[in-house]
């Protein structure tokens, strides 16, 4: 009876991979990850674009984790706490820059144009305020910035949740598959969170401009403040 109840190696591997997927989902909702993606998502009105941005973040995150994980598995590389602290401090700098850029775009995304036309024999000039829609739709189509941001997050978090599990996996193949499944979980989690973050921006984009700008300002401030806290914690510890 004990032999029948004992888990097989295949069942153990499936359990480990399931845990990897759940950890990946959970990993995506950490505050620094949401801060980064919310700052990027705030620059767009399209809900689908927001979700894709989250997916690209997850892809970049997975690339870094896979590279570092492979080094841990095959070369037995270990990341020291000091190195991890420096990488997390770099994430803080990145968050500050993303926040500042998001806030800057709130005030520079609109352009003032003067149109002149003739009406009843009199020439009139009208001032119009236009959103730079072309720049918004063409920029980040492939979202290389989102991938880069995800990669930096992946490097900073590589010594944490994921790599704590790798030494417990005896099979290198299962360990690599674990990283891939973890990555799929993080991609799925961030796509969902990005979609949710993009919804209020979508519904307020045209009808409630002031509220839309307020949401974008909060997203930029969130990234800015969280980045400043990380910098202070990692580079200037008490």
What's the structural blueprint in terms of helices and strands?
Layout: H1 2-5, H2 9-28, H3 31-41, H4 47-75, H5 81-108, E1 110-119, E2 122-131, H6 133-138, H7 144-157, H8 161-165, H9 172-204, H10 209-235
Antiparallel strand pairs: 1-2
Describe the protein.
The structure is a single chain. The chain has 238 residues and is mainly alpha-helical. The chain has one domain (15-235). The chain has ten helices and two strands, in the order αααααββααααα. The chain has helices at 2-5, 9-28, 31-41, 47-75, 81-108, 133-138, 144-157, 161-165, 172-204, 209-235; strands spanning 110-119, 122-131. The chain has a two-stranded antiparallel ribbon with strand order 1-2. A hairpin with a 2-residue loop joins strand 1 and strand 2 (122-131). Helix 3 (31-41) packs parallel to helix 5, helix 3 (31-41) packs across helix 9 (172-204) and helix 4 runs parallel beside helix 7. The longest helix has 33 residues, at 172-204. The radius of gyration is 23 Å and the shape is globular. The model is unreliable at 1-7, 126-130 and 132-140 (pLDDT under 50).
Shape: globular
How do the helices and strands follow one another from N- to C-terminus? HHHHHEEHHHHH
Estimated share of beta-strand residues: 5-15%
| Biggest sheet features | 2 strands, antiparallel
The chain-level structural class is mainly alpha
Instruction: State the total count of DSSP E strands.
Output: 2
Count the domains.
1
Instruction: Report the radius of gyration as a whole number of Å.
Output: 23 Å
Q: Give the N-terminus to C-terminus distance in angstroms.
A: 57 Å
Q: Number of helix segments?
A: 10
Helix percentage range:
over 70%
Which regions contain 5 or more consecutive residues with pLDDT less than 50? 1-7, 126-130, 132-140
- Order of strands side by side in the largest beta sheet? 1-2
Give the rounded overall mean pLDDT.
Answer: 81
């Amino acid at each position: 009876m004990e032999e029948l109840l004992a888990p097989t190696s295949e069942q153990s591997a499936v359990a480990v991979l399931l845990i990897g997927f759940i950890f990946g989902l959970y990993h995506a909702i950490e505050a620094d990850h949401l801060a980064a993606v919310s700052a990027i998502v705030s620059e767009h009105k399209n809900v689908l674009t927001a979700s894709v941005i989250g997916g690209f973040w997850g892809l970049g995150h997975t690339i870094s984790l896979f590279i570092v994980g492979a080094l841990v598995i095959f070369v037995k590389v270990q990341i020291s706490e000091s190195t991890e602290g420096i990488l997390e401090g770099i994430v803080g700098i990145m968050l500050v820059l993303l926040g500042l850029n998001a806030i800057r775009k709130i005030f520079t995304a609109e352009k003032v144009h003067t149109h002149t036309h003739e009406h009843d024999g009199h020439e009139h000039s009208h001032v119009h305020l236009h959103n730079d829609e072309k720049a918004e739709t063409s920029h980040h189509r492939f979202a290389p910035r989102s991938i880069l941001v995800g990669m930096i997050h992946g490097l900073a978090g590589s010594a944490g949740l994921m790599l704590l599990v790798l030494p417990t996996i005896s099979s290198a193949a299962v360990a690599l598959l674990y990283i891939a499944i973890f990555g799929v979980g993080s991609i799925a989690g961030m796509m969902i969170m990005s979609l949710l973050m993009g919804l209020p921006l979508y519904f307020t984009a045209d009808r409630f401009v002031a509220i839309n700008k307020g949401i974008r300002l909060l997203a930029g401030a969130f990234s800015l403040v969280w980045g400043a806290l990380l910098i202070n914690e990692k580079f200037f510890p008490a």
